[in-house]
Every structure is written in structure tokens, then in C-alpha cells.
């Protein structure tokens, strides 16, 4: 899920120079005492976040959170109060509370202790969907048939309305052993509209009034024939959307029907070793401070799109290909990668270096 930080550079610089002593004091007051100091991160890092106090939070597949404060790494687990050690994402509210999403629930950290968010109801009817500016949205596992909305007090489970694609999918996949509405990703765009990427039924979009669906075979099926699901949704600086791969870019139109109204334009590809045009399928995407788009693939490194061409950055750990899960832009615009088999990498301006 994507969070945006608004950097007011000139104001911040003035404020810092005038209040350096106060800022230092606040930083000391925000020192996080929980967890156990460890020498390194877990190899499997699925989520990365930097909070307002500049701490880095790394979420592992099943070994809890790794917190880096610039000097040391601490591992935080269920022993410290987390609801689960299977970490899937981080968010932060206006008061600096950190929300840690896991497979079994959401933990809220106030700087000292963890609190597990309570679920208000087992399942809300379709007409209970609302969209408030300060709400947070969570997946809480892969097999749910909808997202959880947090209103500041409780989590509310919201069941997806029926997708136009459901009946056709069921008829073709009678023996499917997973939930086709299962959530791969949740994304909030610049207008505050919510996007949900499902396992098999494409994209669901909620604008506060209408829940709309969008499905295309080319978004779901890889050239090798596998079902990719909807793993990544991203809005670029022009307000246009990229979904799963670089074949097309989407212009979304206001609509009030169950089918998403849009137009699309050609995206960007590259010539592969067989002299064929190929369009990378990506797990995660972000935009750097210069407006370049960066995409991570699972087993084919990182791709940068500078508005003209795709530039490839292979990522290796020695001779081993690094299997990537996420890309994150920190408070200073530095890019970080989280991987399935080699921990974390950081961009040095030319290439990605393995960290810790």
C-alpha cells in the first residue's frame, strides 16, 4: 500500500536551524526501547517504511519487524506485543503512531507499546462502504473477500460486491483452491480514491460513491502463461495509472457504473534476447524526485522509465539473482529494495548496494 510525504523544504530548513536544540530533545524522547538488538536484517523483507522521526521499519515474511534508527538494528516480534510476526506493511498517522499490518491483524505502536486493533464486525454489508480522508485501509491476510477500513477506533471488514468477472472465472477454474477476491495490494491515489488489486478478478476501485471493476487478460496473464494477479497499481505525476505491467498507461474517467470507465495509451517495452517486444510485470512501483518511474520485478531486477526508454538494473547477491518484492522511496528521495532472499538494497545514484 503507498503513502505520500509532502516535503516543505524551505520551511523545514528554517524551522530546523531555529529549533535545533528542541528537535534534538524530541529525537531523544522518541528513542524506541522495545525489541532486541541484532547484527543484521532478515533475508526476506516484504515491506519498507521510514517514519517521521527518520527510523526505518523493515517487515519480514515471518520473523517480525526490524527497526533501524541509524545506529543499530532491533528485531521486534510477538514477544514485544506484535499481533503476528508475518509483516505485510506499515502506515503512520498524523500523530506519529505506526500501524503494522500482519497476516493476523494490525498492531498500533505509540512509541512505547503495541495495541492490537479491534474488529467492529465480522462482515459489513455492501452499503456500509464509506470513504473518509483520515481512514486507513488494510488487507490483513490474502484470503479475505474485501479490505478492512480503520476509522480511528475500529477495523471494519468490507466485503467486495460481485465482480462482473466472477462467473466466468468460476466456470474456467472449478478446482481453484484460493479465493479469487484475495487482496494482493491496496493503493490510495492523489485524490484519495482507493484501489484494490485482487488475485484473479482484476482491479476494484472505490471513489466514495461507486465501486467499479476493471479486468483485462493482458494485465493478469504473463507471457509464460501464469496468472499474475493484480500486484501493483501506481499513479504517475501526470495523473495516469500503471497496472501490473508497462504495456499500457490508463486514463481514468469519472463514472458511476460497475465497470470502470477509462481510455488507455501505449506504454513502453524493451526488446528481449529473442528480438521480441517485452513488457515487464512488476511487483511494486514508485516515482523518484526527478519524475522517473522505478519498477521491481520478482526475478528480473529493477526497471527505470525516464519518459523515453526502459533502463535495466540487474540485482545480484554474488552470482545469485535477487528475488525482489518491493521498492520504497524514503523521506530524502532515496530508493530502497526489499527482497525474498537477500535482505535490503539501497540506490547510490548509479546502482543498488546491499545494506546491513
Describe the structure concisely for a colleague.
The protein has helices at residues 9-18, 20-29, 166-172, 217-220, and strands at residues 36-38, 45-50, 56-60, 65-68, 73-76, 87-92, 98-102, 106-109, 114-116, 119-124, 136-138, 148-150, 155-158, 183-188, 194-198, 203-206, 211-214, 233-235, 241-243, 245-252, 262-266, 270-271, 277-278, 284-287, 293-296, 302-305, 310-313, 316-317, 320-321, 324-329, 335-339, 344-347, 352-354.
Ordered list of secondary-structure elements with their pairings:
Elements: H1 9-18, H2 20-29, E1 36-38, E2 45-50, E3 56-60, E4 65-68, E5 73-76, E6 87-92, E7 98-102, E8 106-109, E9 114-116, E10 119-124, E11 136-138, E12 148-150, E13 155-158, H3 166-172, E14 183-188, E15 194-198, E16 203-206, E17 211-214, H4 217-220, E18 233-235, E19 241-243, E20 245-252, E21 262-266, E22 270-271, E23 277-278, E24 284-287, E25 293-296, E26 302-305, E27 310-313, E28 316-317, E29 320-321, E30 324-329, E31 335-339, E32 344-347, E33 352-354
Parallel strand pairs: 10-13
Antiparallel strand pairs: 1-5, 2-3, 3-4, 4-5, 6-7, 7-8, 8-9, 11-12, 12-13, 14-15, 15-16, 16-17, 18-19, 19-20, 20-21, 22-23, 24-25, 25-26, 26-27, 28-29, 30-31, 31-32, 32-33
Which sheet architecture does the biggest sheet show? 5 strands, antiparallel
Structural class call reads: mainly beta
The number of helical runs is: 4
Radius of gyration over alpha carbons? 20 Å
Gap between N and C termini, in Å?
25 Å
Shape verdict: globular
CATH domain topology of the domain at 43-117: Thrombin, subunit H
Give the CATH class of the domain at 43-117: Mainly Beta
What is the total tally of β strands? 33
Helix percentage range: under 10%
List low-pLDDT spans: 1-29
If classified by CATH, what would the architecture of the domain at 43-117 be?
Beta Barrel
Mean pLDDT, all residues: 89
Strands ordered across the widest β-sheet: 1-5-4-3-2
Beta strand %: 35-45%
Amino acid at each position: 500500500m503507498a503513502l505520500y510525504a509532502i516535503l516543505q523544504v524551505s520551511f523545514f530548513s528554517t524551522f530546523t536551524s531555529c529549533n535545533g536544540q528542541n528537535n534534538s530533545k524530541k529525537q531523544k524522547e522518541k528513542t524506541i526501547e522495545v525489541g532486541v538488538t541484532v547484527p543484521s536484517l532478515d533475508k526476506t523483507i516484504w515491506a519498507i517504511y521510514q517514519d517521521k522521526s527518520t527510523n526505518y521499519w523493515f517487515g519480514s515474511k515471518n520473523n517480525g519487524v526490524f527497526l533501524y534508527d541509524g545506529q543499530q538494528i532491533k528485531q521486534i516480534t510477538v514477544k514485544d506485543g506484535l499481533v503476528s510476526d508475518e509483516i505485510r506493511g506499515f502506515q503512520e498517522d498524523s500523530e506519529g503512531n505506526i500501524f503494522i499490518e500482519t497476516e493476523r491483524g494490525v498492531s498500533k505502536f505509540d512509541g512505547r507499546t503495541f495495541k492490537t486493533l479491534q474488529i467492529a464486525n465480522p462482515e459489513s454489508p455492501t452499503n456500509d462502504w464509506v470513504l473518509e480522508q483520515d481512514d486507513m485501509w488494510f488487507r490483513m491476510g490474502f484470503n479475505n473477500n474485501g479490505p478492512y477500513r480503520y476509522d480511528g477506533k475500529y477495523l471494519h471488514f468490507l466485503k467486495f460486491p460481485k465482480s462482473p468477472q466472477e462467473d466466468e472465472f468460476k466456470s474456467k477454474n472449478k478446482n481453484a483452491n484460493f479465493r479469487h477476491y484475495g487482496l494482493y495490494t491496496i493503493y490510495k491515489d492523489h485524490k484519495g480514491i482507493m484501489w484494490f488489486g485482487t488475485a484473479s478478478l482484476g482491479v476494484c476501485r472505490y471513489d466514495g460513491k461507486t465501486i467499479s471493476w476493471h479486468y483485462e487478460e493482458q494485465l493478469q496473464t504473463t507471457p509464460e502463461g501464469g496468472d499474475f494477479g493484480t500486484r501493483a497499481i501506481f499513479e504517475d505525476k501526470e495523473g495516469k495509472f500503471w497496472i501490473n505491467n508497462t504495456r499500457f498507461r490508463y486514463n481514468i474517467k469519472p463514472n458511476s457504473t460497475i465497470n470502470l470507465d477509462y481510455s488507455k495509451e501505449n506504454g513502453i517495452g524493451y526488446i528481449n534476447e529473442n528480438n521480441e517486444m517485452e513488457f515487464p510485470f512488476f511487483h511494486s512501483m514508485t516515482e523518484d524526485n526527478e519524475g522517473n518511474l522505478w519498477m521491481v520485478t520478482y526475478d528480473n531486477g529493477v526497471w527505470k522509465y525516464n519518459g523515453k526508454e526502459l533502463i535495466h538494473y540487474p540485482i545480484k547477491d554474488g552470482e545469485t539473482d535477487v528475488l525482489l518484492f518491493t521498492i520504497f522511496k524514503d523521506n530524502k528521495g532515496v530508493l530502497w529494495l526489499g527482497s525474498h532472499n537477500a535482505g535490503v538494497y539501497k540506490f547510490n545514484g548509479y546502482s543498488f548496494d546491499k545494506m546491513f
